[in-house]
């Protein structure tokens, strides 16, 4: 932390008294910066453990900001550091607000916040990919079921190579069965791909602490073009996020197959995170497995 503070002070040309961790994900960490007087600086630094990811997120934020209705962080600069361990940083605008996970003051305000979020997300979802599909670092002309099958095969092969010791035979069996049933799980699927935020969850949104109005959406995911239903997979099936999911589906219903594909997506998303970062969300994986099993025949 001290090395990072000194590095940022050198880059910005002014003193930094301390860094404060705002949030942490599998491959990144977001810091608030404070000047020598202890006052918050008007920017934040996002630290990436792996090379190339900072530029990809900057590209994604630029696209979301240009084409959307919701404010996203403006990118001020990208830092490629050779200080060990080698890392990258994005310097972005800081917003004053609290996580949208914080309870709204009234039920009416929660309803209003949900409407703001849904309208903002639909602003991105109205942008058609014109036949493109994929992640921000790898886009191709294809249809979603074919692309998703490719992605699963890559993850399956990589998982076999890594052979994590905590991954059980039962875990592998559910993944194998889901691969075998992909054709049935995507039967009659014809939804177009649209622009994705890619990490839709309340923890990725900021709201005003007093008015409960949406301020910004942050922390986008790697997926760039996908069907609308894929945007919804990180919303929990209980609590406030389940309420937000229902608000979205009331405004813009998705295919009936989302009932089972939701759990397919979550299952392989856990594998994706394991392969890319070494972190494995066992409770989420097990819950998705239990929900998907009845649909596998």
Shape: globular
Structural class: alpha+beta
Largest sheet: 5 strands, antiparallel
Question: Per CATH, what is the topology of the largest domain?
Answer: Aminoglycoside 3'-phosphotransferase, Chain: A, domain 2
- Write down the Rg: 20 Å
- Strand-residue fraction? 15-25%
Low-confidence stretches: none
- Kindly provide the name of the CATH class of the largest domain: Alpha Beta
Give your account of this protein's structure.
The protein is of the alpha+beta class and 297 residues long. It has two domains: 2-93, 2-Layer Sandwich (Phosphorylase Kinase, domain 1), CATH 3.30.200.20; 98-295, Aminoglycoside 3'-phosphotransferase, Chain: A, domain 2. 43% of the residues lie in helices and 20% in strands. The strands form three sheets. A five-stranded antiparallel sheet has the order 1-2-3-5-4, with helices on one face. Strand 1 and strand 2 form a beta hairpin. The radius of gyration is 20 Å and the shape is globular. The mean pLDDT is 94.
Keywords:
alpha+beta, Phosphorylase Kinase, domain 1, Aminoglycoside 3'-phosphotransferase, Chain: A, domain 2, 2 domains, 10 helices, globular
What is the secondary structure topology, with strand pairs?
Elements: H1 2-12, E1 18-24, E2 28-34, E3 40-48, H2 53-67, E4 75-81, E5 87-93, E6 98-99, H3 107-125, E7 132-135, E8 138-141, H4 144-162, H5 169-180, H6 182-185, E9 194-195, E10 205-207, E11 214-217, E12 223-226, H7 228-231, H8 239-251, H9 258-277, H10 282-292
Antiparallel strand pairs: 1-2, 2-3, 3-5, 4-5, 6-10, 7-8, 7-12, 9-12, 10-11
């Amino acid at each position: 932390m001290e090395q990072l503070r000194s590095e940022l002070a050198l880059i910005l040309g002014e003193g930094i008294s301390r860094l404060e961790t705002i949030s942490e994900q599998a491959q990144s960490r977001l810091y608030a910066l404070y000047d020598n007087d202890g006052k918050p600086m008007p920017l934040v630094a996002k630290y990436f453990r792996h090379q190339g990811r900072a530029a990809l997120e900057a590209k994604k934020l630029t696209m979301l900001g240009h084409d959307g209705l919701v404010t996203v962080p403006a990118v001020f600069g990208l830092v490629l550091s050779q200080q060990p361990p080698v890392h990258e940083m994005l310097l972005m605008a800081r917003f004053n607000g609290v996580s949208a996970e914080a309870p709204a003051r009234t039920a009416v305000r929660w309803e209003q916040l949900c409407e703001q979020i849904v309208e903002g997300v639909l602003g991105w979802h109205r942008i058609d990919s014109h036949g493109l599909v994929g992640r921000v670092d790898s886009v191709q002309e294809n249809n979603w079921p074919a692309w998703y099958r490719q992605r699963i095969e890559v993850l399956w092969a990589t998982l076999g190579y890594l052979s994590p010791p905590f991954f059980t035979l039962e875990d592998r069996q559910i993944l194998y069965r889901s691969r075998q049933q992909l054709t049935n799980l995507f039967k009659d699927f014809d939804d177009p791909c649209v622009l994705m935020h890619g990490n839709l969850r309340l923890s990725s949104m900021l709201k005003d602490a007093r008015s409960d109005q949406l301020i910004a959406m942050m922390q986008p995911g790697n997926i760039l073009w996908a069907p609308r239903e894929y945007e919804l997979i990180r919303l929990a099936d209980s609590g406030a996020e389940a309420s937000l999911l229902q608000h979205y589906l009331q405004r813009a219903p998705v295919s009936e197959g989302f009932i089972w594909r939701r759990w397919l997506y979550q299952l392989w998303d856990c594998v994706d995170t394991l392969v890319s970062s070494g972190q494995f969300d066992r409770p989420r994986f097990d819950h998705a497995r239990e929900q998907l099993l009845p649909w596998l025949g």
